[in-house]
Design goal:
By secondary structure, the protein is mainly beta. It has one helix and ten strands. Strands 8-9-5-4-1-10 form a six-stranded antiparallel sheet, covered by helices on one side. It has a four-stranded antiparallel sheet with strand order 3-2-6-7, covered by helices on one side.
Length: 132
């Protein structure tokens, strides 16, 4: 399993953010997720699971419907409809979204998005240690 973790370094102040995540079209989500990646042994498929803690999309003031997770960058858009809100004591506390990659090309496209998004949002890549 691979995982993206937050690291802290100063962002470039004159850079326009190109990679973004939205749950409702046209509304950028400012919460930065934890992302966990898994990939099949043959490399043909993989899964990215995003966890957003207290995202703006779940604020009580928000009236916009969550229609999916849209990963948007200079190459275009990657869409996932597998989006679930998490609740504790009836209050929304997070969003978990899953993106399934069904081919090596899907994996490479997702990784290009993640590299841009990670650089712009202070995320670092950590490869988990496989045990055997």
């Amino acid at each position: 399993m691979r995982q993206w973790e937050k690291t802290y370094f100063p962002a470039e102040s004159n850079r326009t953010i190109m990679a973004k995540i939205q749950f409702s079209r046209g509304i950028d989500e400012p919460a930065v997720p934890d992302v966990r990646l898994t990939r099949s042994r043959d490399g043909r498929s993989g899964t990215a699971t995003f966890y957003f803690e207290r995202p703006q999309a779940l604020n009580k003031e928000s009236t916009d419907e969550i229609t999916g997770m849209y990963l948007i960058d200079e190459e275009g858009e990657i869409t996932s409809r597998e989006v679930k809100a998490r609740f504790v004591n009836g209050e929304p506390v997070g969003i978990e979204a899953t993106h399934v990659m069904k081919s090596p090309a899907d994996w490479e496209r997702f990784m290009r998005f993640m590299e841009s998004y990670a650089a712009e949002n202070g995320l670092g890549f950590t490869k988990s240690q496989s045990g055997s």
